[in-house]
Design a protein that fits this description.
Elements: E1 6-12, E2 29-30, E3 33-34, H1 35-45, E4 50-56, H2 60-69, E5 74-78, H3 84-89, H4 92-95, E6 101-106, H5 114-125, E7 130-136, E8 145-149, E9 152-157, H6 164-167, E10 171-180, H7 181-189, H8 204-211, E11 216-220, H9 232-252, E12 256-257, E13 263-264, E14 270-271, E15 276-277, E16 281-283, E17 288-289, E18 294-295, E19 300-301, E20 305-306, E21 311-312, E22 317-318, E23 322-324, E24 329-332, E25 335-341, E26 346-349, E27 352-358, E28 363-364, E29 369-371, E30 381-383, E31 388-389, E32 394-396, E33 399-401, E34 406-407, E35 412-413, E36 422-423, H10 435-452
Parallel strand pairs: 1-4, 1-6, 4-5, 7-11, 12-15, 13-16, 14-17, 15-18, 16-19, 17-20, 18-21, 19-22, 20-23, 21-24, 22-25, 23-25, 24-26, 25-27, 26-28, 27-30, 28-31, 29-32, 30-33, 31-34, 32-35, 34-36
Antiparallel strand pairs: 2-3, 6-10, 7-10, 8-9
This protein binds uridine-diphosphate-N-acetylglucosamine and magnesium ion (MG).
Uridine-diphosphate-N-acetylglucosamine (UD1) binds near residues 84, 144, 175 and 201.
Amino acid sequence: MSQRSCLSIILAAGEGTRMKSAVPKVLHTIAGLPMVAHVVKAAEAAGSGDVALVIGHGADDMRKAALKFAPKAEAFVQEKRLGTAHAVLAARAAISKGYDDILVMFGDTPLIDPEALAAARLKLAEGTAVVVVGFRTENPSGYGRLIEKAGKLVAIREEKDCSDEEKKITFCNGGLMAVAGRHALKLLDQVGSKNAKGEHYLTDIVEIAAAQGLDVVATEASFENALGINNRAELAQAEGIWQARRRQEAMLSGVTLVAPETVFFSHDTEIGADTIVEPNVWFGPGVKIATGAKIHAFSHIEGATIASNCDVGPFARLRPGADLRNKAKVGNFCEVKQAIVEEGAKVNHLTYIGDARIGAGANIGAGTITCNYDGYSKFFTDIGEGAFIGSNSSLVAPVSIGKDGYIASGSVITESVPDDALAFGRARQRTLPGKGKELRERFASAAAARKKG
Ligand code: UD1
Ligand code: MG
């Protein structure tokens, strides 16, 4: 298979008006990744390295976005929306390069299974000219019906062109098609527009190929492969299916999810075996978790690296650049951003750590804040190995606390503290015997005088 060259053509010229959005439909995300990028990933997973993206006129946002999720993809503009065959032909220059396999996919159908693509490619390798990936449904309305004669696929009929009898067919076109490269252009160029919509239908190549005696087959895949997104309700439905699959995968790979339906992954979340994830945890993009970590309830984690046996949350927020080394602890109501928390260090309660390094075994007391921003620039705080930061301290960056340094509670630290030093950054306490009582009496009589008057 891998020796066969393959081009994936992804149609993404859709208008997407039903999304009611300023963002092109296919750039709406599932698991934090644009839906069209999911399609690109599926194509790549099926061994299709070259991607042609067919976009609409003036789709500058699409071009820009594509540079990120598919830097190698070539974009082709379909100036007018004249149908799916017309859209595929926008990529004529790419098709002409001469590929063994051509895959056609829709950019708004993000749950495509790479295995369905690979199965279709296998059929091409056996000499089939056109492979249609179909699915069965009790509610086929809106889909093209797969018309078979004597067990052979002979045509695809769009709903609007179906006879009443044909409308009863429940075997439908999912929209995925694989075409042998050597036949592709010849077949596409024969597609006309004599149908209810007056469009050039890609699906017509089935009838054209079958009439010429070429081998045409339908394979069957699950409905998800055909789930096209047209509005935000369908977007949420696809997200739900994606998350359910990912949770299952995580659990089967050794991750405990106490309440799986409440844990949300991103497209790129990596999570090692024996990690326990409590309920209501959100993983944004860029999270890597090694083995044996505990992620307690209600934590929000993105762009973070979490090493083995770390303890996070409950109610922790790890932002991009949070880098927790082995056995580090970040507890409740703590936020960590762009900071290394070295082995065994503890940031347990109500703390903000940003632009910092916390040395191994250091203990950060409740309410500690790294004051990293002066309204214009960000500054770094370095906390040495074994340091102890007393509760409710403010560390005004740039500043460093030496190894085994000790900061008294309630300090505002503006100057660096050397190794083993003790630093106070607060007013000394004064205790005045009897003064409390005297004060109360004075206040009470003042209040009584006011009432009388
Ligand atoms: C299409 C199939 C139908 C199948 C269904 C599965 C055709 C003719 N019909 O119907 O058999 O059951 O998908 O969902 O292919 N597009 C362009 N340019 C165009 C027209 C369409 O880029 O000129 C893109 C759309 O953005 C979309 C895809 O092609 O991503 C499919 O087009 P759409 O109009 O949604 O086709 P359906 O009627 O859903
Ligand atoms: Mg559609």
